[in-house]
Design brief:
By secondary structure, the chain is of the alpha/beta class. It has helices at residues 2-22, 41-44, 55-68, 71-78, 82-88, 95-101, 116-129, 159-171, 186-191, 218-227, 237-260, 263-266, 272-283, 287-293, 295-305, 307-312, 326-339, 351-361; strands at residues 32-33, 51-52, 108-109, 135-137, 150-154, 175-179, 201-204, 207-209.
Length: 369
C-alpha cells in the first residue's frame, strides 16, 4: 500500500512539474519531510521516503477532478479558486487512476451453494457451544491455518458480516472465517491497534481493514478493488449510496429485531448475559421482549419496506441491471440476517425478491477470459 500510495503521489507531482515546465513557470522549491511513523518503519516492514510539501493536497485535487469532472465542486472542497483548479490540476491524471487512488487504504483502516451460509454458520455456532474451534476456511471445516488467505473476523448472524462473507464467497477466492464472541472484542481491538471494536474486520496479510464510520463501505470497496468484482461502477455511485443507506436503515432496522427475538438459539449460554446486557444498554430494558410482542408489526414493516425493491426486480435480474452490484449484496445480507434463525420465510407478496434471493445465494463471479 505504501509503495502504491507513494508512486501515485509521485505521478501527480511529476505531471504537475512537466506542466509547469511547459508553461515556463518557475516556483520556489519546498523542503521534503519524512512521513509520520517513519521511526517504526523498519519493524513494520516498509521503507521511509521523502515526502514532498503539499504532495497529498496536490494529489487529492488532481485525482478528485479526474473522478468528478467538476472543477466547481472540487474548488469548494479544496478551498482554491476554480481558475487555479482549472489551470494547475485539470487533466493531469485519468479517471481510472482516480478510482485506484481513492480506494487505497492504510495497513489499519478505521468499514458452496445455498445449503448455504445460514446452515454453515449454525454449524459453526454449534461447534462453538461444544468447545470446538470457531475458525473455518472458505466455508469449509478445515482445521489447518492458511495465513495467505483473507480472514473475515465476524459474528455469524451479523447482517454486515454476512454482506462481506457473501462477497468473498461470490469472488471464489479462498478465505477463512474467525467467529468471535459478542462480548469479547479483544482480537479486533488488538488487530486495529485500539482504534475499533466492531465487526466485520478483514485481515489480509499485513493489512487490517474496517469501517471508518456508519457512512462508509471501506471493506466492500477494498474487496472489490482487490478482487476486481465490479461492484462499485462509477456511473452508479450516487444511486448505490442512496440504496445502501436505505437498506442499512429501513430494512436492517426490521430484520435484526426479528432475528434477535430468537437470540437464545444463536448465543452460547455462557455469553447470553453479556449479549442481553449489551442489547438492553443500547435499546432499553426489555427491548427483546418488546420486539417479540411487536413481531407482527415488524413483519408488516419489513414487507412494506421491501416493496420498492420488489418493483426494481420486476424487470431486471438484479437491483440495478443485469449484473450484481454492491447494493444487491447489501440487501442480501440484511435478508439473510432475517432468515438466519430458520423461523421466517421471505414475504410471499414479493415473488421477484424470492427469485432474486435464490439467484444471489448461489451466484459465482465469472471472470473474463
Amino acid at each position: 500500500m505504501v509503495d502504491q500510495f507513494r508512486d501515485m503521489t509521485r505521478a501527480v507531482n511529476q505531471a504537475r512539474r512537466a506542466d509547469e515546465r511547459k508553461k515556463k513557470t518557475v516556483r520556489r522549491a519546498r523542503g521534503s519531510v519524512l512521513p509520520l511513523g517513519s521511526e517504526t518503519a523498519a519493524e513494520e516492514g516498509w521503507a521511509p521516503f521523502a515526502w514532498k510539501h503539499n504532495a497529498l493536497r496536490h494529489s487529492f485535487i488532481s485525482y478528485r477532478v479526474a473522478e468528478t469532472q467538476d472543477v466547481a465542486k472540487v474548488s469548494l472542497e479544496a478551498g482554491n479558486p476554480p481558475q487555479m483548479i482549472f489551470k494547475h490540476y485539470r487533466e493531469l491524471v485519468q479517471p481510472k487512476a482516480a478510482k485506484t487512488w481513492f480506494v487505497i487504504v492504510p495497513d489499519i483502516v478505521s468499514n458452496s451453494l445455498f445449503r448455504s451460509t445460514r446452515t454453515r454458520e449454525r454449524e459453526r455456532i454449534r461447534a462453538c457451544k461444544s468447545g470446538m474451534c470457531a475458525v473455518s476456511f472458505g466455508g469449509s471445516q478445515s482445521g489447518q491455518f492458511c495465513f495467505d488467505m483473507i480472514e473475515l473476523i465476524q459474528f455469524p448472524w451479523s447482517p454486515f458480516c454476512i454482506v462481506q462473507r457473501r462477497i468473498l464467497e461470490f469472488s471464489g477466492t479462498p478465505f477463512k472465517i474467525t467467529n468471535i464472541p459478542n462480548q469479547d472484542r479483544s482480537l479486533v481491538w488488538k488487530l486495529t491497534k485500539h482504534r475499533y471494536y466492531g465487526v466485520p474486520v478483514i485481515r489480509d496479510g499485513k493489512f487490517v481493514v474496517f469501517e471508518l464510520n456508519e457512512d462508509t463501505q471501506v471493506i466492500a470497496k477494498y474487496l472489490d478493488q482487490k478482487l476486481k468484482l465490479g461492484l462499485f461502477p462509477f456511473d452508479l455511485e450516487g444511486v448505490q449510496s442512496i440504496l445502501w443507506r436505505n437498506i442499512e436503515n429501513e430494512i436492517e432496522g426490521a430484520t435484526f429485531r426479528l432475528n434477535d427475538i430468537f437470540w437464545k438459539e444463536n448465543v452460547p449460554a455462557a455469553e447470553q448475559l453479556d449479549f442481553l446486557r449489551f442489547k438492553e444498554r443500547k435499546f432499553g430494558r426489555g427491548c427483546i421482549d418488546q420486539w417479540r410482542a411487536q413481531q407482527p408489526d415488524w413483519l408488516k414493516k419489513l414487507e412494506q419496506s421491501l416493496l420498492p425493491f420488489e418493483e426494481m426486480l420486476a424487470h431486471k435480474s438484479f437491483l440495478l441491471g443485469e449484473e450484481p452490484r454492491f447494493a444487491d449484496f447489501d440487501l442480501f445480507g440484511m435478508l439473510e440476517n432475517f432468515l438466519f434463525s430458520g423461523h421466517y420465510e421471505l414475504p410471499a407478496a414479493h415473488p421477484h425478491i424470492k427469485e432474486w434471493h435464490s439467484r444471489m445465494a448461489g451466484l459465482k463471479f465469472q471472470r473474463a477470459k
